[in-house]
Specification:
Elements lengths: L2 H10 L7 H16 L7 E5 L3 H5 L7 E6 L10 E5 L15 E5 L8 H14 L2 E7 L5 E2 L4 E2 L6 H7 L12 H9 L6 H7 L4 E7 L2 E9 L1
């Protein structure tokens, strides 16, 4: 394994508890359990999630439904997966849940109107929710581990990313442009506008807000 690959795994591998991303995910999980101590008895709707997250969780809810555009197996009666648009899932038929969870989805749905539709689905599907997203003004853009990337023009981002070693995959200019346009990080003000009845929790690294979570418990 090259030095670049080792650094990439150390910084941006959420499945490795020793990486920065893995450590942050573990801290968020602790906060989620603290916010919803009866999680094991809940029916949970996970918008944008996949079954693998819940299969590996230290606490399993009574029932989980994951909704994602990516196909996945439904492992059993307590955990089902639906291929659908989280911003307007037609497969749920107005079904109600105890808790809606959404991790790192809202910045990828495509514009404010789509974020508003997602927020409406979250708030109409359960009285309680947990909606997490990376914070726009954290100095390092989290998807590519690139300092200040989110503040550059789309053209400049797309020119730089094919030469940046810490991205998710090898991209040409067109692929990089498509990727950067599909990611719009949110501010605290926008999260409060979308979820006015929620508390916005700041997940911090070195005293700086790394991600924000709208919590209604």
């Amino acid at each position: 394994m090259t030095l670049t690959q080792q650094l990439k795994r150390k910084l941006n591998n959420p499945d490795d508890s020793r990486s920065v991303s893995g450590w942050a995910r573990a801290k968020r999980w602790e906060k989620l359990l603290d916010s919803f101590p009866d999680l094991a008895q809940m029916r949970v709707l996970d918008l944008g999630g996949l079954p693998s997250f819940w299969l590996n969780a230290s606490v399993r809810p009574a029932e989980v439904t994951t909704v994602n555009l990516v196909d996945a197996d439904s492992p059993g009666p307590w955990l089902r997966h639906i291929v659908d648009d989280a911003c307007g899932p037609t497969s749920l038929g107005g079904e109600q849940f105890d808790l809606v969870v959404s991790n790192s989805l809202i910045e990828h749905v495509g514009g404010y109107s789509a974020r508003r539709r997602l927020a409406d689905v979250v708030q109409s599907s359960a009285k309680r929710h947990w909606v997490q997203t990376p914070y726009r003004y954290f100095p390092i853009e989290p998807h590519w581990v690139f300092p200040g990337l989110q503040f550059l023009s789309p053209h400049l981002r797309a020119k730089l990313l094919p030469h940046w070693p810490f991205g998710h995959s090898e991209l040409d200019y067109q692929g990089a442009l498509d990727a950067v346009l599909a990611c719009e990080l949110l501010s605290i003000s926008e999260m409060r506008l979308l979820f006015p009845d929620s508390t916005v929790w700041h997940e911090k690294v070195a005293g700086l807000t790394k991600s924000i979570v709208a919590i209604r418990s």
